[in-house]
Amino acid sequence: MEVGEGGEIRAANAERASKVKEVLDFDWKLLYTLASDKVEGVAKPSVRLQLVLDAAPDGKENLLYEMNDQELDELLESLQSILDGRKAP
To answer: pLDDT tens digits for 8-39?
Structure first.
């Protein structure tokens, strides 16, 4: 499993996900970081999304993404545009 933070990991995950036939399962968690060992008072919300993918012939594959609120909004907009495209004649 990889956490999708950073351009290289995100690009690699996107390339692997593009070869997937089907999402078998997913799980999500809402996280709220109040502080860290380096910064006091971070107050940063994020969402962690885990996808279980059918990556035949390799079998199942797990991908783990962590997104801030802006990245989550972009993902939801992308998914909505896909749904809208499927509804159009």
So the answer is: 666 666 666 566 668 889 999 998 877 777 76
In a domain, 2, yes or no: no
- For the CA atoms of the chain, what is the radius of gyration? 15
Give me the domain span that covers residue 25: 7-87
Predicted confidence at residue 10, as pLDDT, reads 63
Examine residue 15 and state whether it is found in any structural domain, yes or no. yes
Residue 89: asked if its preceding bond is cis (omega within 30°), the reply is no
82 within domain boundaries: yes
Per DSSP, helices labelled H in 2-68 are 7-18
